[in-house]
Every structure is written in C-alpha cells, then in structure tokens.
Amino acid sequence: MTNLLKETSHTSEQLKTMLYDMMVIRSFEEMVEKLFQQGKIHGTMHLCIGQEATAVGACVPLTIEDKITSNHRGHGHSIAKGTKVKGMMAELLGKETGYCKGKGGSMHIADLDVGNLGANGIVAAGLPLGVGAALTSKMKKLGYVVVCFFGDGASNEGAFHEALNLAAVWDLPVVFFCENNLYGMSASIKEMTRVENIADRGAAYGIPGVIVDGNDVLAVAEATQKAVERARTGEGPTLIEAHTYRWRGHSRSDARKYRTREEEKEWRKMRDPIALFKEQLLKAGVLTGDEFSDMEQQVANEMDEAVEFAENSKEPDLETLMKDIFA
Amino acid sequence: MNDMRELTYLEAIRESMSEEMRRDEDVFIMGEDIGVYGGAFGLTNGMIEEFGPERVRNTPISEAAISGCAVGAAMTGMRPILEIQFSDFVMIAMDNIVNQAAKMRYMFGGKTSVPVVVRLPGGSGAGFAAQHSQSLEAWMAHVPGLKVVQPSNAYDAKGLMKAAIRDNNPVLFYEHKLLYNTKGEVPAEDYEIPLGQADIKREGSHITIVATAIMVNRALEAAEILAKEGIEVEVIDPRTLVPLDTETILNSVKKTSRVLVVYEAVKRGGYGAEIASMIAESDVFDYLDAPIRRLGGLATPIPYNPTLEKAAVPQVDDIVVECRKLMNK
Amino acid sequence: MATEVVMPKLGATMEEGTIVSWLVPVGEVVEEGDPIAEIQTDKIVIEIEAETTGVLLKTVHDAGNTVKVHEVIAYMGEEGESLDGLAVTSPTGSESVDQQQETTVEAAPVTSAQAGDKIRRTPAARKLAEENRVNLQEVVGSGSKGRIHKVDVESFLAQNAKRITPLAKKIADDQGMDYKQIDGTGVRGKVMKQDVIIPPTDSGQTPEVENKRVPFRGMRKVIADRMAESAYTAPHVTLYSEIDMTNCVSLRQDLLPVIEKIEGQRISFNEIIIKATAFTLKQHPNMNVSLEGNEIVFHSDINVGMAVAVPDGLVVPVLRNVDQKGLAELTAESKKIGKQAREGKLAPDDMQGSTFTISNLGMYAIDGFTPIINLPNAAILGVGRIQKKPVVVNDEMVIRSMMTLSLSFDHRIIDGAPAAAFLTALKDALENPLTLMI
Lengths: 327, 329, 438
Prior knowledge:
Number of helices of chain C: 9
Number of strands of chain A: 7
Oligomer: heterotrimer
Radius of gyration of chain A: 19 Å
Largest interface: A-B, 44 and 47 residues
Number of domains of chain A: 1
Order of helices and strands of chain C: EEEEEEEEEHHHHHEHHEEEEEEHEEEH
Strand order of the largest sheet of chain C: 10-19-18-17-13-16
Distance between the termini of chain A: 49 Å
CATH class of the largest domain in chain C: Alpha Beta
Number of domains of chain C: 2
Number of strands of chain C: 19
Number of helices of chain A: 12
C-alpha cells in the first residue's frame, strides 16, 4: 500500500467521499446479487466486487464534462462517474424509470448527462467509441477528456490496438484504463499474451504505459490524474494498467474452476480495497469509527431507497417496444 | 435558380458532402486515403485542400477503430461521414455498425442519437474480384436501427446524400463503383431527397421491375428493348431499402399485375427477397397474374475473369428474357 | 359435414313437389346460390338453389319423383366427404319408389386428370374467376405448366359469355342449337331450359315424338282438375264482340317511347286491354264477383289474373288493383310477372286473389275462342289477334285494326244482359281509349 495519503492534495471530505463511493458500489453489487437470487432481476450481470478502487480512483480527477466508456462489468464505473443508484436499480429491474427505460439492462447503463457514455456488451467496443468522443472534444475544442475502462481480456481485441493507435496518431484526449483482474472470463491473462504487462503495449503505439495497484484508490487516482492532465494538454493518450481482482465469478453462472480458492482468499482478506482505504483513513484520523458506521448506515439506506424506488416503478408500456429505434 | 449541369455520380456525391460541410461545421469526413490521394476512387479529390486535414481526416487502416470512432463522435455531437474504401471492408467495422451504432439509441432508452453516414462503394464489374466487389446491403437492411440507401444516378446521389447527412440515424450509403462515372443532370442548388421515397424511373403497364442501384439502369435499358416488342415495363427504384417505400411499389404492382425484382446481390437472402415477400404478403397479392420473380446474383463469389464476372450478376439481356417469360412469351 | 337438401314448402297449401330435373350431376361442385334442381309444385316450376358452396354428394330422389315437403332429396358437403354415420334418408312416401336409383359419389367425381390436383392459377386469375363464377376446371391456362392467368379467364369469359344451366346445355347440344345466340331468361341472361325448347310452330322440322307414358300429376294434374271443375260446375256462356282497335294502335304507338323511357319496357296491347277491362269492371261491379259456398262475393279490389303459357302448362299470376294503376306501372308489372311466370319463379302468393281473368291468344292466329272460367272468378275474357280488315264506317269501306273479344261468364251468378252490357262498355272503352284517361 502506498503512503499517498500524506502527500495527497485531496481534502478529508474528498477522501471520505471516495470511500463512500466505493462502499456504495459494493453495497449496490451485493444488493443486485441478492435480488438476482430472489428472482427479481433476470438475465445476467457481471459484478465488480473487489474492483471498487479502480472505478472510483479513475473518476476522481474527472469533471462532469469529462466522459467515460465502460464495459460489461460497468456498475462501478457508472456509480463512480455520478450515475445514481436509483435509476440503475430500476434499470436492472427492467422498469420504465431505469436509465434506459428498462430496455438496456445491466450491460447498457448509460447516463450521458454525467458523461457516462455507456456500458457495453462487446469486449473492447468502448475504446473506439471513446476515441470518437475524444475526437469530438478535440474538433469542437470542448476540453474534455475520455476515460475508457476495459479489462485485460479486451487488450487482445483488434479494437484495442486500433483504438490506441488512432488516438495516438491524432493526439486525442483519451485515457485507456485497463482493469487487469487477471482473468478474461475464465482465461488467465498470463496464458493469453506473451507480454509481461499490458501496459507494455502502450510502447507499440508510442504512448506511455503505466502500472498501478488497482486496489489502492489513491494510487489509481494519482496515476489517472497524470494521464488526464497529459490528455487535457494535448499530449495524447495514456495506457494505465491497474491490477485488481474480481471476487465473484465472471457472471452469475461461473463455478470459478480456473482459479484457486486460496488465490481468492488472499485477495479478499489481504487486498480488499475498501478495508485497506478505511484503515488508512482511520489511521490518519481522517475518519472515525462512528463516522464509518454512519456511512455504512447511509449506504444501506440509499440502497433500500433505490430498491423501493425500483420496485414501485412501472413496467414499461408495451408500446415502447418499437420506440427509440430511430431518432 | 434552377442551374442544371451534367455531373457524374461521383461528383454529385462530392458536391453534396462539400455543401454540407460548408453549411455545418459538425460535418466532417474520415477514411483511408481520402486526403491528398483523394480516396480510392478519387471521390474526395480536392476536399482536403478546401477543408483541411482536421475535417478531411485521413485515418490509419483500422476499420474497427475508425468506425467506432465515427460512432463515438456522432454520439457526442459531430456528424461524421465515414468512407469505407470498399464496401467489403465493412466486415471489419461490423461490430461498430451493428452492435453499436444501430442499437445505441434503443439500448439507452432514447437518450442518444448516432448521426453518422457510412459510405460504401460496392458492386461488381470493375475486375476487383471476390473481396472488392460484393453487394451485402441486405445484411445492413436486416438490422433494426440502420437506414440503407442505394442511389442509382447522380441526381439521386446528391439529394440522398444530403438527406443522409441531415438524418439523425446511422445511414449506410451504398455507392456503385460502375456508376461513379455515369453522368446526369444535377441542380447546383441545395435539395434533399427524403429517405423512404421510391422513384418511378419509367412508367409502364405490363410488368413492374423493382430494381436497385445499377440494376435500375439495366432495367431501363431492358425496358427500351421490351417496348419494341410491345411489353411496357414500369421501373421502380426504391432508392432506400430502409425505410422502404412500399406504397409506390404496391401501387405499381397493382397496376401491372406482374413483378420482377432485380438486384445485383446474391439472389439467395438478398434484399429483393424482402421486396418480393412484402408484395406477396400485401393486399396486392390478389392482383398478381404471375409468380413474383427475382433476378439476382448467382451464389458465387465474384470471379476475376471479365466474362465470368458479368455472368455472375444480372445483365440487360437477362432482364429482357425474364420479362418475356413473365408475359408467357 | 354434409348438409341436407329438402323439398321446400313453397306455399301454405303445398304438401308435395315433383323433382323436374337435377340441374347438376352428383359430384359436381356448386356455389352458394347455384340452382341444383327444378321442382314443380301444383302451381309452378321453381329452382332449388344451393344454400352452401360444396359438392352435391348424393341425390335421394330421381327426377320425376314426387316428394313430400321437408323430406330430404339430396345431400351436399365437401369433396370426397363420406356420408357414413349420417342417418341418410331412404326414399319414402314417393310415388315411384320403383324408379328410385341412388347415385353416390365415393371420391372426387371429376375427371381423373384433375382429381385431387390443385389448379395452377395466378391470384389475379382466381379473383376474376370468383367474381364471374367461372369454374377454373374449364379454363385452359396459357402459362407455364398450364398455369391459368388472368387473360385466360378473360378469354374464357369472352367465349363463354353465355351462362347456361346444365340441363339447357344438354338440350341445346342435343338439338345442335347454338345457345350462345340465345338471350337467356335466367339471372344475368343465363340460358334456361325453356329458352332452348323449340316451340313446334317455330320449327320447320317436325320434332321427333317417341312413344312414351308420362305420369299424370303435378301441374298437369292441377290444371286438369281445375278445368274440369270449372267446365262441369259453372254453366259457361261465351259472348263475342269485334272491337275496332285502330285508336288503341295509335295510342300504343304514342305511348311506346314514353313508357319505355320511364320503365324500360315496351307497352303491349295486353296492358291496354287489362287497363280497359279494369276501367269497365269498375263501372260494372256485378261482373267482379265470385261464388264462394252459399254467397256471392262482390269484390272492391279489381285484381286481374293474366294467363301465361309456360312449357308444361299454364299459370295465372295476378296484377292487383289494376284500376288504380297507370299504363306505365302496369306495363312494368305485367312484364315482370310474365317473365317470372315463364322462368318458374313465381311465388305461390303471386297467383292468389284474382277477381277476373284475361286469357290472351293474340300472338297466335286465333280470332275468338271459348275460355274456361278461372274459378272462383265469375268471368274470363279471351283476347284474339288484331288484324286489319275492311269494315264499314259511316257507310264507307275502310281498313281498320280489328280484334275479337270472347267473354265467358258463369251463368249461375251472371245473366246474359249484364254480361253483354259489360262487353259493350269494354268495346266502347277500347275504341275510345282516351276515356281511360278520365
């Protein structure tokens, strides 16, 4: 664990907000997991429990004007970017008050008002889209930066390579943020690429490649901050590789035969991003035990409200089936 | 102000894009070799000189990235025109068109729009063989959320391109390589041909030919020959496959009672099958006095040899013969 | 599911009917409304129409059989349908059980080449055929593999513009007659049996008559009974009077175009005579009577029966309240009723309630005759032909259109003097037809 807290310029309020956001993400994931088990959510979902620090840390340097593109494991990214859990919960329950009016579901939550250009069901698809959004920023001189979240698996997609190259040759304001959680579904990244680090691939496109502890939210925030500044000043894209771990399986139907329980236990006990950051804040005196309890209660309340809102919301009318196909 | 000039199909498209780029700062074009090279067919010749490299963006050979980039730019306020050098290369961009552009608005509950035009030079007859000569527009027409345009002459090309650029949806704009140098009268003024409006290219009473792209021109030639035999052919050009102007087609079939659908794409599963089915399912069925016939490409990759290449897709004579059959002659 | 075809009850008094002919063979597809059989009641011959579209599966009675009303005479159903399980009626109560012959259809009855095969035809051809009730089995297709196109149906229609009943077609074919030239009396000009029967007088050749015995029943029997009853119970006296019809001839000439324009029908002398008769009856109510049991009934209505010859006999449809009707209306009505009578389409009620009858043989070379009273009427007027004759008018020989009227009256209730007065008044009316306008 780095000792960034001493050097950080973040105020204690900002630090507590970061912790709070991570707690919201985890609580949201646990709640939707429960609702899924209760049969209130259908389809599938990809949970990011254990990866809260990458989402929150990467969004710390972003303003509401900046944008993100996300992937199939996107609940954390959305919450970190400012998308509200009420609308997300309603979307997962397929209600008309959901962010996508019940037509997108877990893999397509988007909230353009806060710069969330949407989760994506296609691996690596968010990268070229993010590059396009960055092109708009450049051509219209809007000054915003785009952070593209993707996993280690996506780094083997052609779109990853083409997007990095394109953004590089056009000096576009993009941060390619790779959450390396070691497995693309069941495939260990070690077996799927010969390069040591995904970050090394930045060199192929003439852009910086940075490795960061993805479970250290301050380290993530720090690394992203630098990349965002580079992008904003017209120096072009950066590739960040954040090491992290997803506690749950790939989706709801994963027996996790491809990894050991020992490995899982180690990440959960020793490298829980929330526990680590909480300890840091308690030690530094930024946070008290009581405050933490209050925060836990607040998060629980927020989640209850979200579920109540979602459950009390209307199902979409059948007539919306054929709406919004064309603008 | 009705200044008519002769322009080629290619010039008409260029003029249409240039006019729109002058009118709207958000419109720009991106693609491979479209800068000083002028594009593989020279269509963007002179555009980089007028608009500069920022708005005539030469891209790496990265269809997956540039297509996604165009969609991302469209979602965030630009109106990109993406030139895919040969329509065959769109396969590499398919995810961004089918999974992203077509669905974004719907998936997001109507919260975004994707005003992108994807230009796709297609069709056979130029000796480019199997990977540079296909007509896969039916693939696109199959996908909800995409509009598909296939102009058959210079006049239509200019007006349809305007409509495509101004449309707030992804529009796949299929240009036929063999038509690029065909000339037609094109007004200098600004005009738009609404998407979803078929055109009756020739009136006739005996057979309706619904033809797309270059087949419109071949159908018109065939109609001349057939007229001398007393067979009066009506030629309908849908101009846009999605949306499809079913009314104009059905009214014509109701009048003639016989219909031949002609398209260059492989007949099996081609868009002409959709047109034929649409007619068969409609109330006009009762007016049919012959089976609905289709003339399409053979189920073969486009061969290189010019004789074989010609034989792979409908030619004027094929249309003439098919019409005679329809008339039991 | 097979449906029963029963002997219809066509009037309150009808108890039985005779099947004159089956108009379609067993196994043939008929459409709803197509005539399938001709039925003769005691008064009329009428066509039975199919109530549903389908196949005539079986006939229970042959032509010639007399069947009680409501009794099953045939079954209709779908092609190939079996009648097993249905309580199929056997002929009962028939006068001619010995003649009974059942015909059933086992499978599709049409020629083997077409049996079971769907006809290849375009939608447009099918639509046109349906609209014109063309049986596509009869149409030759010009398209691929014999597919029938619209043009094939059109040319079929052009060639077969003549619609004809199967019976009429058989008769016409037997006689080598070109029925296409005949203006049929059926629906939309359909050629009916009566249209192709050549009247002996019209034919140069003598029809071949074979030795045969025909059952004495049906209409023939009814006519016979009625005539005998009238002739043997009512003492007939017949008065003759020769009428100068010259004014009527010119009146008719004047009215022809006028009435034709209004009604689309050409007025004939018959209507003028009917009108004049009603006019005169009104002035002579003692002629408009009938003997019913112990009472002589004086009728306030003047309903004139009009004897109409039909192929197998004679019917008398009734024109009602003739005195209140103008010549145009009368013309239209008498043409209509006459046509219905010849087509065997009269309803029983059309033949009830006459108070006086006119029998017109003016189309033949007949001058005068002794008509038999149509009971319970008290009198009948026989009309002869109009002929130009030299007559003396004002001591001069002039040529006039002359016609003889023969009035038979029932001397039980009408005496000679009032009958003679009536005929004289009628003569005056016809010779001065303008009085009819008064």
